[in-house]
Amino acid sequence: MAATIKLYTNHGCPWAHRAHIALNELKLPFEEEIIDLSVPRTQEYLAINPRGLVPSLSYNGQIITESGIVAQFLADAHPSHLVPTGGTPEAALARARVNFFVDTFFTKANSQYHKALFAKTDEEAEAASQEFLKQLEKEVEPLLSDAAPYFGGSKTLTLAEVLTGSFILRLLALPKNGVGPESLIKDLPTRTPNFYKWANAVIEHPSVNSIWNEENVVSKTKTILAKQKA
Ligand SMILES: N[C@@H](CCC(=O)N[C@@H](CS)C(=O)NCC(=O)O)C(=O)O
Asked: How far is CA 216 from CA 39, 56, 133, 200, 221, in A?
């Protein structure tokens, strides 16, 4: 029998977006409830997720929270092309490779990207942008040498793209729209060609971009940055 799935989400949230990518790619029907993040969470929602964050997943009545755990759970509960289920050294190795890639992207590169966006001065932003490029080149680029076009030589989307896709959409879109220094993306084609090719394949994938609203994300990010500066 098909699982009963409800996703508590907000389409502007990159973490919640991960759950959408997983559900879309696994072709799992689900109901969604949009949580308004501009107001305090209701008692009803806090009973579902005491942290008050999105996403939360209700799966046959069981609540699962934290986007990475939600996506991993869905991939494990519904074995597919996304990632091999465990149980053999080969599968464990493939899972370890995905986990290492995702960890590297967030800790080494995306953290610097974030710093560049939220920098207090142009100089700080430029320094973080240069560090982002350096880390991307050193740490992420080699891990994408066999992308075809997806992680690990895969012709189909993998858990690596499920967990990073919503951030890649933002990474490429924001500087193009005047958010963050242009240097964040200007030299990607020459300095990190593997990453650039992979990232463009990722953002074109319908499971990745189905809830993406560039205009909304750009304008919300501009508002957040302006508030922070004020
Ligand atoms: N570590 C969490 C982060 C989720 C998160 O930060 N969600 C934000 C929206 S993007 C949220 O719910 N914020 C609510 C608030 O801060 O009040 C995850 O991966 O699920």
From this structure: 18, 22, 26, 20, 8
Report all structural domains of the chain as residue ranges with CATH numbers, in order of start.
5-77 (3.40.30.10), 89-229 (1.20.1050.10)
CA 151 to chain centre: 14
Per-residue model confidence as pLDDT tens digits over 75-114:
999 999 999 998 999 999 999 999 999 999 999 999 999 9
The answer to whether the beta carbons of residues 206 and 157 sit under 8 Å apart is no
- Is the distance from the beta carbon of residue 137 to the nearest atom of ligand 1 less than 6 Å? no
> What pLDDT, in 10s, does the model give residues 171-221?
999 999 999 999 999 999 999 999 999 999 999 999 999 999 999 999 999
From ligand 1's centre to the CA of 32, what distance in Å? 17
- Measured in whole angstroms, the distance separating CA 68 from the mean position of its chain's CA atoms is 9
Question: Does residue 1 sit in helix, strand or coil?
Answer: coil
CA distance 38 to 226: 16
Q: What is the DSSP letter of 34?
A: E
Which among 10, 13, 66, 217 is the best mutation to test ligand 1's pocket, defined by most ligand atoms within 8 Å of the CB?
13
Assign 3-class secondary structure to 13-58. Answer: CHHHHHHHHHHHHCCCCCEEEECCCCCCCCHHHHHHCCCCCCCEEE
